[in-house]
Each structure stands twice: as structure tokens, then as C-alpha cells.
Amino acid sequence: GAVVSQHPSWVICKSGTSVKIECRSLDFQATTMFWYRQFPKQSLMLMATSNEGSKATYEQGVEKDKFLINHASLTLSTLTVTSAHPEDSSFYICSARQPAGWANEQFFGPGTRLTVL
Amino acid sequence: GENVEQHPSTLSVQEGDSAVIKCTYSDSASNYFPWYKQELGKRPQLIIDIRSNVGEKKDQRIAVTLNKTAKHFSLHITETQPEDSAVYFCAAPLSGGYNKLIFGAGTRLAVHP
User: Fold this and answer.
1) How far apart, in whole angstroms, are the C-alpha atoms of residue A75 and residue A26?
2) Cα-Cα-Cα-Cα dihedral of A45, B44, B109, B90, to 10°?
3) What is the rounded CA–CA span in Å between residue B14 and residue A56?
4) B88 contacts in A (CB within 8 Å)?
5) Theoretical Cys-Cys bridge with A108: which of A31, A41, B43, B108, CB 3.0 to 4.6 Å?
6) Handedness of CA B66, B67, B70, B74 (dihedral sign)
7) Do the bridges between strand A67-73 and strand A76-81 make them parallel or antiparallel, or are there none, so unpaired?
8) CB-based contact (8 Å) between B104 and chain A?
9) How many Cβ atoms are within 10 Å of A48's Cβ, its own excluded?
10) Model confidence over A50-66: pLDDT tens digits?
11) Residue A76 to residues A6, A70, B109: CA-CA distances in angstroms?
12) Do the beta carbons of residue A33 and residue A96 sit within 8 Å?
């Protein structure tokens, strides 16, 4: 159990275009999902917390107008990178928490490698 | 907010030796400390975690110890094998709800046959 999927697994786009990444919890409902960004040989940096039915909360330094998050259902959160630039190229990973009773454990998606040309 | 420091950044051991990775955290209210293993290009996978009501937890060759007074926790891998080679991350929750995790910088472990 506790499987999280992401789509696409990789994407290449031109500078200035927008890219949408989907994160799904396949066998449980996730009221809270998290989006991370990981540059090569670096740690996971939390970008934002996605809350079902409400606005996402962003970490300091993350532009909410550039990284649009929508958590429309209990099993799906989307991250849209708007007007992407080469510096946005990174590995984007989502995670989801199981419902109350399972406390803190987060389950990660397989990640999406974004390359902006 | 929480600050997590992890050492060493790289660790090289011979197969069969033990490996120890240490992390310190700053928020005394933190109560959950997971360790993740990440292979190149893959997702982080939880390998062991510990909650603040215990001082040690063991799962086969992997153990985690927690010292709440000193605010540090450590990952111990015994009888290392080449397949243990990966990047290991510790994490601690950021206060303020949602149990957001803050990750350490990572330790690249290389186990040589």
C-alpha cells in the first residue's frame, strides 16, 4: 500500500512554456501532499504544501505565481511550472501523507525530471 | 524553524564494515525522525524511522539511535554490502502543522567490494 505516482517521469520543454506535473496517491486518500525540488547532487528542498480544497502554502523564496499548485481531489495534486526557464530544470518530487493514524510518514512519487531548453 | 545538519557528506567503507551517519536538529519539539535512501535518479525510500518516545530502533542491519537531550540522531548500517551504496538523507519535521519534513544535505555512501 501507500503508492504515489507522478506523471510525466521526464519532460523537455522550450523556454517560456508551461509544464504540468501530476502527483497521485493510488491506494489512499491524501489531504496533504508536498512538492520538492532536487538539483543534481543536492538535497530535497521543500517548495510547497498542497492542501486538498484550499490554497497551497509556499516555502520562503518559492514564487507562488510561477509554481502553481492545485489539489482538486483527495488523490491528485498538480504542479504547473509557468514560463519555464533553464534554471527551472530540476528533479521535481511529490510526496503524500497517509490519513490520520499513520502520523508523519511520507511516501514519495518517482519524480519528474524537467529539462528546459 | 527547524534546521537539520548531516555528516559526513561522503562516506567510503569496505564491504562488511559498519557505516554511521549523524544528524542534528534544532527544534526541541520535533518528534519524528526518518531516514531515506535514494539511488541515482530514483525516489527517496524510507528505510527506518524513530519517534521521540524511544531511544533506539533496529531493523535487521539498520538501526537508528536518538538522543533528544543533545538533539541528534544517527543511522547505523552493519555488515555493509555494495547494494547499500546510495545517498542517505535524514529528516526532521518543521513545526507549524502538516508535519513538513526538512531534509539534511545527504550522505553519499560508497561500499567497496
Assistant:
1) 7
2) 60
3) 45
4) none
5) B43
6) negative
7) antiparallel
8) yes
9) 23
10) 888 888 999 999 999 99
11) 10, 8, 34
12) yes
Question: All 3 cell numbers of residue B69?
Answer: 537531550
Q: How far is CA A115 from CA A9, A81, A85, B58, in A?
A: 11, 12, 9, 40
Q: Does B88 touch chain A (CB under 8 A)?
A: no
Q: What DSSP string runs through A10-74?
A: EEEE-TT--EEEEEEESSS--SEEEEEEE-TTS--EEEEEEETTS--EE-TT--TTTEEEEEEET
Q: Which residue of B has its CA nearest to A46?
A: B102
* Range A68-77, long-range pairs (CB < 8 A, 24+ positions): A69/A35, A71/A33, A74/A25, A74/A29, A74/A30, A74/A31, A75/A24, A75/A25, A75/A26, A75/A29, A75/A30, A76/A22, A76/A23, A76/A24, A77/A22, A77/A23, A77/A30, A77/A33, A77/A35, A77/A50
CA atoms within 13 A of residue B108's CA, in its CB half-sphere: 7
The span from the CA of B104 to the CA of B110, in Å, is: 18
Measure the CA–CA gap between B46 and B31, rounded to whole angstroms: 17
**Chain A residues touching B40 at Cβ < 8 A:** none
The three grid cell numbers given for residue B64, joined into one nine-digit string: 537508528
CA distance A21 to A77: 9
Spans of chain A, pLDDT less than 70: 1, 99-104
Size of interface A-B (CB pairs under 8 A): 56
Helix (H) or strand (E) holding B39: none
Between strands A32-38 and A45-51, the pairing is antiparallel
